[in-house]
Amino acid sequence: MLKHINKIVSVYDRKTSMRLTDIEWKIIDEICYTEKLKRKALFEKIQDNRSSCLGMTPAIRLFSLNYYYLKSKPQSHKYSDSVEETLKELL
Question: 75 in helix, strand or coil?
Fold first, then answer.
Protein backbone atom coordinates (compact mmCIF):
# COMPACT_ATOMS: atom_id res chain seq x y z
CA MET A 1 0.00 0.00 0.00
CA LEU A 2 1.26 3.45 -0.88
CA LYS A 3 1.82 5.83 1.96
CA HIS A 4 1.75 9.57 1.31
CA ILE A 5 4.31 11.61 3.21
CA ASN A 6 4.33 15.38 3.59
CA LYS A 7 7.74 16.99 3.96
CA ILE A 8 8.76 20.59 4.30
CA VAL A 9 11.41 21.34 1.66
CA SER A 10 13.44 24.44 1.02
CA VAL A 11 13.87 25.74 -2.52
CA TYR A 12 15.89 28.96 -2.76
CA ASP A 13 15.31 29.90 0.87
CA ARG A 14 11.55 29.44 0.44
CA LYS A 15 9.97 26.65 2.43
CA THR A 16 7.10 24.69 0.98
CA SER A 17 5.22 21.52 1.79
CA MET A 18 5.47 18.67 -0.68
CA ARG A 19 3.38 15.51 -0.64
CA LEU A 20 4.86 12.45 -2.35
CA THR A 21 4.51 8.74 -1.74
CA ASP A 22 7.17 6.98 0.29
CA ILE A 23 8.42 5.32 -2.89
CA GLU A 24 8.73 8.67 -4.67
CA TRP A 25 10.79 10.05 -1.78
CA LYS A 26 13.06 6.98 -1.97
CA ILE A 27 13.47 7.48 -5.72
CA ILE A 28 14.41 11.13 -5.22
CA ASP A 29 16.94 10.11 -2.55
CA GLU A 30 18.43 7.45 -4.89
CA ILE A 31 18.83 10.03 -7.66
CA CYS A 32 20.52 12.41 -5.22
CA TYR A 33 22.85 9.67 -4.01
CA THR A 34 23.75 8.59 -7.55
CA GLU A 35 24.32 12.15 -8.73
CA LYS A 36 26.05 13.25 -5.51
CA LEU A 37 23.55 16.08 -5.01
CA LYS A 38 21.65 17.29 -2.01
CA ARG A 39 17.88 17.16 -2.35
CA LYS A 40 17.70 20.96 -2.12
CA ALA A 41 20.13 21.35 -5.05
CA LEU A 42 18.14 18.89 -7.17
CA PHE A 43 14.86 20.64 -6.41
CA GLU A 44 16.41 24.01 -7.29
CA LYS A 45 17.60 22.66 -10.65
CA ILE A 46 14.12 21.33 -11.35
CA GLN A 47 12.59 24.66 -10.27
CA ASP A 48 14.91 26.56 -12.64
CA ASN A 49 14.02 24.37 -15.62
CA ARG A 50 10.36 23.53 -15.18
CA SER A 51 7.60 24.96 -17.31
CA SER A 52 5.53 27.68 -15.67
CA CYS A 53 2.36 25.67 -16.34
CA LEU A 54 3.68 22.75 -14.30
CA GLY A 55 3.67 22.79 -10.51
CA MET A 56 6.75 21.84 -8.52
CA THR A 57 5.48 18.47 -7.27
CA PRO A 58 4.36 17.27 -10.73
CA ALA A 59 7.66 18.53 -12.17
CA ILE A 60 9.58 16.42 -9.65
CA ARG A 61 7.48 13.36 -10.51
CA LEU A 62 8.01 13.93 -14.23
CA PHE A 63 11.73 14.48 -13.72
CA SER A 64 12.18 11.23 -11.80
CA LEU A 65 10.26 9.23 -14.40
CA ASN A 66 12.27 10.78 -17.20
CA TYR A 67 15.54 10.25 -15.31
CA TYR A 68 14.99 6.50 -15.08
CA TYR A 69 13.62 6.33 -18.61
CA LEU A 70 16.84 7.88 -19.95
CA LYS A 71 18.92 5.55 -17.75
CA SER A 72 17.12 2.54 -19.23
CA LYS A 73 18.10 3.44 -22.79
CA PRO A 74 21.07 1.51 -24.24
CA GLN A 75 23.00 4.74 -24.92
CA SER A 76 22.43 5.99 -21.36
CA HIS A 77 24.15 9.20 -20.32
CA LYS A 78 27.10 9.45 -17.99
CA TYR A 79 26.15 9.96 -14.34
CA SER A 80 27.69 13.42 -14.21
CA ASP A 81 25.57 14.65 -17.13
CA SER A 82 22.36 12.79 -16.41
CA VAL A 83 20.57 15.39 -14.27
CA GLU A 84 21.34 18.12 -16.78
CA GLU A 85 20.38 15.89 -19.71
CA THR A 86 17.16 14.84 -18.00
CA LEU A 87 16.24 18.47 -17.36
CA LYS A 88 16.82 19.25 -21.05
CA GLU A 89 14.65 16.29 -22.08
CA LEU A 90 11.97 17.22 -19.52
CA LEU A 91 11.45 20.73 -20.81
Answer: coil
